[in-house]
Amino acid sequence: MSQGFIEFWQTMYRNKKAFSGLIILALFIFMAIFGPMMKALDMTVNFEGRYMSPSFAHWLGTDYGGRDTFLQLVYGSRDVLSIGLIAALFTLVLGFVIGALSGFAGGKTDTVLMFITNLFLTVPSFPVLMIVAALVQIKNPVMFSFILAAWSWAPLARAIRSQLLSLKNREFIIACRIMGLKTPYILFREILPNLTPYLAINFIMAAQGAIVASVGLMMLGLAPYSPTNWGMMIQLAVQNTGGIFNPKGYIYLISPIMCLGLFQMACIFFSNGLEEALNPRLRS
Amino acid sequence: MSLKGVLKRIAVSLITVFLAMLLTFFLLRMTPGSAIDTWARDYATQRGMSLDEAYRQITAMINYNPKEPLFAQLGRYLGGLMHGNLGMSMIYQNVSVNEIIANALPWTLFVLSVSLIISFLIGINLGAMMAFKRKTILDPIISIYAILTSSVPNFIVGILLLVIFSFQFGWFPVNGAYDPIVDPGFNFPFLLNVLYHGALPILTYVITTIGTWALTMKGSAVNVLGEDYIIAASIRGVSERTLMNRYVKRNAMLPLITTLAVSFGFMLGGSPLIENVFSYPGMGYYIGQATQQRDYTLMQGLLLVTSLAVILANLASDLIYAKLDPRVKLEEG
């Protein structure tokens, strides 16, 4: 285990893209955990102090209401990251359980589960998310994550199923079945470890997808529960004349966009590197 | 391809259509009863009729009556769909959902087909070039470009284009599909105006999808380049240009055509985000309006039509692919 761990880190370190992705992600996580503890964010409107340019007191200036832009970003990162992480976790659990059951059980269970999966793959997810967000009042990140995950597990389930189809005829699984081990035991103790690398990469991709979708929904004003979420900041900048009409407000508009882009890029770099580190066949 | 395979695909699609109808029905059922009550009250005072009469007319208009038993509701809804009736919009007064879709679909179709054709053509040519000239600067540039465009969501690119070209420079319009001063119809000023209004949405789609097309094409072309017939052709002295255009590009394009059909279906629903950024009155714009203003009939109508488009596109892509590539057998998979 420790040998493999060291090797993993070495591969990550050698891959420049993956390593830079990892560092950026770590910085974002650090910002989300410790940032809000450093300084309190004052969201009261301060009319005299609006549209200030960047200074030592306000690193990225102030927005249309005189609030510190940088602090809003820091506070927002907590919300954005927790949505990404929780949604990715839900997606992974749903995708793995449904895909693994479908592939492992076969027969009627497989047919029914795959039909449901196909339906979820066919109905365009973003419009559905919009409608669900309109019907249900989203009040916190956990609920938001669950709604996002409920419409994003299908591709993963299908992929896991096809992996299962090849795995279940391997000798060690057949041995388990002959020994009379229960299905949940085989799925979680024998099959899950074999799929860990694959799931790890999908975790990053699911987090990335959930964050884009959540920012999109926020931007349409469909989940207005946190004013500092980056998506909400973009919405306020675009719709509420916060930044788009006024060149002085451009920093307020650009900052969440930059953060989002940087985070997404770090995810892509990191997951590419992870794929290389965990899949020996890709290593050159 | 065998007839049995085709029929099976069609049957599966039909069942999916039915499930999509069920889904939209349950969505409509989630409409709070109070929304219908309020509407009925307004309707009654407007037309000077009794509340019961208003309620009856409204439930007929939206094909849905929350007071009926579940199966009667479903029967009424499906019956309406069989007549192609999606009900009346709840916020746009006296406009049916069908009319809204009929007005919105051409705009989405226009932006979508123009941008898909542009990005597909540029993308596959770039991808083929990347595969052919491995050692040139082209490959890293396109790869970085693809990573950049996939890390910035497409609606953000839209916002940036809007801020730069519409607000900062004032070169492009801020909203709408055409100016009211031009005469809608098949005349040159109108077409020019439509193109002028569609330019930024089209540019957004093209910028954000070119990279993916190029990378997919490159992957596919690299595979084709390893085939024996390519080596044989190049030994035979087939010129590099012919090799690229007639041998590699044609074969490498096959899997991408399926993707093209599928993405056409997915985008037919319009991108709610892009169309809302540019206030472009396509399908996505109306789904945004419907959800923001809680127009339940419009929501379900748009979702149903969008889902049908995806199902059709999936079916078409399967059939087209089997036709284009005889190596694919439809029964499998």
Describe the overall structure.
- The complex is a heterodimer of chains A (284) and B (333).
- With 284 residues, chain A is mostly helical.
- Helices cover 73% and strands 0% of the residues of chain A.
- The model of chain A has no long low-confidence stretch (mean pLDDT 80).
- Chain B has helices at residues 3-29, 33-47, 51-62, 70-82, 97-132, 138-151, 154-168, 188-225, 228-235, 240-268, 272-277, 283-292, 296-324.
- The relative contact order of chain B is 0.15.
- Chain B has 333 residues and is mostly helical.
| Biggest sheet overview of chain B | none
Give the radius of gyration of chain B: 24 Å
Shape estimate of chain B: globular
Largest sheet of chain A: none
- In percent, how helical is the residue content of chain A? over 70%
Rg of chain A over CA atoms, rounded to whole Å, is 22 Å
CATH architecture of chain A: Orthogonal Bundle
* Biggest chain-to-chain interface with counts: A-B, 37 and 42 residues
Low-confidence stretches of chain B: none
Q: Strand fraction band of chain B?
A: under 5%
Computed structural class of chain A: mainly alpha
Number of helices, counting only DSSP H or I runs of 4 residues or more of chain A:
11
Give the arrangement of secondary structure elements.
The complex is a heterodimer of chains A (284) and B (333).
Chain A: H1 2-14, H2 16-38, H3 69-105, H4 107-122, H5 125-135, H6 141-150, H7 154-167, H8 171-178, H9 183-219, H10 230-239, H11 250-278
Helix pairs in contact in A: 1-11, 2-3, 2-11, 3-4, 3-6, 3-7, 3-9, 4-7, 8-9, 9-10, 9-11, 10-11
Chain B: H1 3-29, H2 33-47, H3 51-62, H4 70-82, H5 97-132, H6 138-151, H7 154-168, H8 188-225, H9 228-235, H10 240-268, H11 272-277, H12 283-292, H13 296-324
Keywords:
heterodimer, A: 284 residues, mainly alpha, MetI-like fold, 0% strand, B: 333 residues, 13 helices, 76% helix, globular
